[in-house]
Amino acid sequence: MLWKLVKNDLRHQPLQTFNIAFFIFLAVTFLATASQLTVHLTNSINQLVTSAKTPHILQMHTGDLNRKRLEEFVEKHQEISDYQVLNFLNIDNAELSINGHSLKDSVYDNGFSVQSPRFDFLQDLDGQLIEAEPGQVYVPIFYYISKQMKLGDRLTIGDRALEVVGFVRDSQMNSSLSVSRRFVISQEDYDALEQMGSVEYLIEFRLHDLADSSKIETAYNQAGLEADGPPLLTYTLFQLINAFSDGMTILALIVISLLIILIALFSIRLTLLAKLEEDYRELSILKAIGIPLRNIQRLFLSKYLVVAGLASSLGFLASFGVKQPLLVNMKIFFGESQATIWTYLLALAISLLVFSIIAFSMGRLAKQLKYLSLNPDQIQEREVLSPRFGSLPHILQLALADLWARKKIYTTMLSVFVLSLFVVLLPMSIYSTISHPSFINYLGLGNYDIRVDLSQISGKEKEVEQLISELETDPLIQKISVYRSYMLDYKTETGNKQKLWVDTGNQKDFSIKYIKGHAPTTDDQISLSKLRADDMEKKVGDQIPMLINGQEKNITISGIYSDLTNGGKTAKASFPVEHQEAVWIIIPITLKTETSSQDFIKAYQDRYTFAKFSDIESYRNQIFGSTIQMVSTISWWAFAGAIFLVLLITSLFIRMLFIKDLSQIALLKAIGFSNKQIQLQYVITSSLILILSLVIGNFFALTVGDSLASLLLSTIGIAGVTFIHNPLLTLLLIPLSILTASLLATRVAISDLHHFNISQLIKEDN
Where in the cell is the protein located (predicted)? Predict the structure, then answer.
């Protein structure tokens, strides 16, 4: 019986049935896909860090190394199951070229390593441990994804050429957010190249229990062991960085899926309200002849529940196909991840949840059937008295009267349009913000043209000072500052010593965005990154006992900022540090307007090869470019999807109302209204609804949307973002495109009006 009802609906009302099925299918497909991708991503990363035996704690160090002291430290701490010290040979990018093209413009620290002996294994794309032969090199996977290198290419280091025979899957340095890249070569080639670069040590620890990580970090810092490099990096941080790009895709899918579920609910409400109005007389007759209300509700809803069940089932099955293209990138970075029983169970649970929400919503609508009556005043919502619009043109009066008479249906249609617009504006808002040059301020970087990085500067003090002196007197430079980074001691509340990465210098010269407070302006102030402040459980106004120039001082926290550099756990201060060698030096430069960044960099890079000169735009694109591209793709797909939704919803529901209004159209024709005038009424109605939805949608996008986008970015340590909206997109291109789509759909939906004559319309009504 139910199947017969469904078949009849498909035959006589295909548009309404398709509308309900389509949105349920879409919602289930996207949400089930997102759930499966979440399981795959989690499993893939866990599989990679397990097979590679990723270190639980890593300290990068440049300079002398006391191995005996490290061994004594390990012996004292039974929590450590294993440790090793690896060599990472940093070679200036100017010495590297691929097929004759120099890598001097790369912002990454490209270094060379041999396979790890105990853990932190480097794997190829098949998940096998790399064993490079002499003359061979395995290239970081980043260069494979960005298509900068391919198999068979020749990588030249100085006068030594190596053949690219594979790519490195590195559990530490896979992500584009990591500024270091490990090339894997043979021990023979490493020995030959060692004199060309400087060695950075990777001091790595594996623990029996990961829960002891904080304890060992504290003990390491208290022991005063080697720490001439970025702050200690942890297993959890490696997992977070690895999940960043794919995680953002999954988050976007989840948000869009939830919005589509809301659209589906509103669309179903719109369809059922219209259907209820259409079938009101027949359903009232059934009640009048004694058929129980429960049976009437079941009769009205059952066919839609069957359609919802079929659509949910198809959406569940479709999710297994939709996820495949999205798994390609994940497979390259993390390896093959086999689907587990939890993959299917979670997707099934999500599908059942969506179906349950839809069924619950339908059930609430069906409760309106208890008011069924043969009283003519209650048969149709259209017969409710509407306000008078006597001073307006007749067609506009008809359109406004129709809006008022069927306000429930049109309010639901309005809600669908608002949500469709929201689906577009949310990713567009994120894209406009992260692609704007000022967004770099939320990454811990100021606004400038060129960034000069000086690392591993021990023994090069004279050359460094010569470079700084020349830059400070260069007439092409409009503004310059020098920031020196130190690892300074501070005391915790328990009196233990910990290390803190502090960038010192005039923090007002190239200011960054602050979530709370402001940049330090005096010698007794310091600002902390959000991740560092959370780690230390500190807020603005708190004090930190710090050891500066041999003296303990209470330094007040003046502000908290977002940062993704150096693991995101940094600090900034303006006090001078004496009698201590800087770990890193950063020199931001603003050039005079007429000066070319590339020409300026070329003039200095050739003479100061130990320094890394980066155009800030290139720096931003190389570090964050893949994420920007991903969000851009999502934004334009969302835009195309919204246009499709508007076309579909408008055409379906205007057509549905048009067919239902045939008797009234006959009356309008009989009293002298032309086809064009009647068509214009529908165009005005849909246009008014859409224009109102554009206003409301933009309002919510600027308020709720910005809050939601800010919440998404805060999950990766970027907080307090002021979103930038492109008015050309949000106020012109998107509204105009959606309005055009709506008008086109309306015209198509009622295009056959001229085929109906008055006698046909009256006959069909009878």
Answer: Cell membrane
